[in-house]
Amino acid sequence: MRSYGTIFAADETAVFLDPTYGKCIDQKGAKEVIVVSTGHEKSRITVMLTATSDGRKCLPYVLLPRKMPDKKIVEKFEGKLNLAWSGRAWFNDEWTAQYLEATIGPKMFSNRLLVWDSFRCHISAQTKATLKQLGLHTAVVPGGCTGFVQAPDVSWNMPFKQHIQREYNNWMLAADREWTVKGNPRAPGMEVYLGWISNAWDSLTREAIQKSFKTCGITNNPDGSEDHLIHCLRPDGSIPLGQELLRKARLEKDVEVIVPEEPDEDEDVNNGYKSDEDIAQ
C-alpha cells in the first residue's frame, strides 16, 4: 500500500475565443435568424487546470498564442495565472515539462501523485524523465475512461466553461465593444479573455474540488465505506453493479489501494491523441 501526502489532478481544456458553438436565441417560428459572432470561432487557447485532493487550486497554466510577453498583462495577472508565452495552441513535451516545474515543482517531503490522462506528451520519454526529476508519481487514466474517473473531466470543466460562456455573453452585449470596418465585433483582447479564465477558475469552490476526487474514486476510504460516492457506480450510473464488484474484489484481496497521508503544511505546491482538441470536449 503506497501513501501520498499530496494528490494532484490535472487536465488540459480548450478555451475558444468565440464560444458561440453555432447557437443563437430568437423568437419561436422566426424564418430568418442572424447569428452574431466575432468570426473567431476556431481561435482557441489551452489551459491546464490543476488542483489537489484537499481542495487547493493551483494557478491555471495558460498557453498563449504570442511569444513576446506583454508587461502590462504579466503584471495584471501575476498571482492569478501562470502565463506561458509559447506561441502555440497546445502542449508538447517542452511545455509539459515547463508546466510541471512551474505548477507542481520538485519533491520536498512526502510522496506525491499526479492523476491525468494519456495524452501523448503526458506519457512520453521526455515527460517521464521530468517526472522522475521532480519525484512525482503518476496515475494515467486510459483513453475512453476520463469521463468516469478523471476529476477535471467529470466535475471541473463544465462549470469552468459555463462561466466563460456567461462572461462571453455579457461581453457580446456590452455597448462599448469594438467593431471592425465591416461591422463585425472584434475578438476579445488577451486581457479580456484571461480575465474570464481567472474568474471562471475562482468560481470553483474548495468543496467542489474536494468532492470531485471522491466522485472519481481517487481519495475514497479503501474499506468501501465511500464507494457510494463514486458517480459511475451509483444505481443510476454507468456501472450500477460496480459497488458489488468492488466488494467482492476486496474479499479476494485483488484491489491495490492508495491511501492519502495527512496534509503536510510545509509542502507547496498512447492513446494516439494528436492534440488536446481531442480531449477538450
What CATH architecture would you give? 2-Layer Sandwich
Q: Sheet bearing the most strands, described?
A: 6 strands, mixed
CATH class: Alpha Beta
Helix content: 25-40%
Order of helices and strands: EEEEHEHEHEHHHHHE
Radius of gyration: 21 Å
Query: Could you tell me the number of beta strands?
Result: 8
Instruction: Provide the domain count.
Output: 1
The largest beta-sheet arranges its strands as 5-4-3-2-6-7
State the end-to-end distance: 34 Å
Discrete helix count: 8
Residue fraction in strands: 15-25%
- Summed over residues and divided by their number, the pLDDT gives a mean of 85
Q: Which consecutive residue ranges, at least 5 long each, have pLDDT under 50?
A: 24-28, 30-38, 263-281
- Net shape: globular
CATH homology-level superfamily: Ribonuclease H-like superfamily/Ribonuclease H
CATH topology: Nucleotidyltransferase, domain 5
Structural class: alpha/beta
- Quaternary arrangement of the chains shown? single chain
A few lines on this structure:
This protein has 281 residues and is of the alpha/beta class. It is built from eight helices and eight strands; from the N terminus they run ββββαβαβαβαααααβ.
